[in-house]
């Protein structure tokens, strides 16, 4: 007599498949049995109260507040780059006239601020003392309205 072609693992896999199939059929039967047909629309509705919680009872119409559609803000307003109107003083630490940009060291907080040649009122060089205003840009602070301070003779 020959040995069976069915191994232990094949039998176990087949048992698992059969069990899975039976479980699936049982769940399908349960869903069909528990399905309540013929519910009215009112029984299927859910309401949201003033706190945002779901409830089965409709809200009290006496508590309604009228809202003007124009007052409703959707999203936020686009923020424009702010221009701070404070005139600052500083020293040009580096300026490359060929490339058209440089940096100014702010006297007040020793912060290095970017400056572009388009924002210059007077031509500047390294170590010049200047006045400027700071404009916040998407890339960071930038100096605008840059003017060279004239040295006063003593």
Automatic annotation (TrEMBL):
Gene3D superfamilies: Nucleic acid-binding proteins. Signal peptide: none annotated. It comes from the Bacteria. Residues 1-41 are annotated as: Disordered. Residues 23-33 have a biased composition (Basic and acidic residues). CDD domains: CSP_CDS. Residues 87-148 form the CSD domain. This is Cold shock domain-containing protein. It comes from Spirosoma liriopis.
């Amino acid at each position: 007599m020959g040995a069976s072609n069915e191994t232990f693992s094949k039998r176990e896999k087949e048992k698992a498949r059969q069990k899975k199939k039976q479980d699936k059929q049982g769940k399908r039967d349960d869903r069909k049995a528990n399905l309540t047909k013929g519910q009215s629309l009112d029984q299927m509705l859910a309401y949201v109260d003033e706190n945002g919680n779901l409830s089965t009872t409709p809200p009290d119409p006496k508590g309604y507040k009228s809202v003007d559609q124009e007052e409703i803000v959707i999203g936020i307003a686009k923020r424009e780059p702010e221009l701070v109107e404070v005139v600052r003083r500083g020293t040009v630490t580096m300026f490359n006239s060929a490339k058209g940009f440089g940096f100014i060291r702010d006297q007040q907080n020793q912060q290095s601020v970017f400056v572009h040649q388009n924002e210059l009122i007077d031509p500047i060089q390294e170590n010049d003392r200047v006045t400027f205003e700071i404009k916040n840009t998407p890339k960071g602070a930038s100096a605008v309205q840059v003017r060279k301070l004239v040295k006063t003779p003593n």
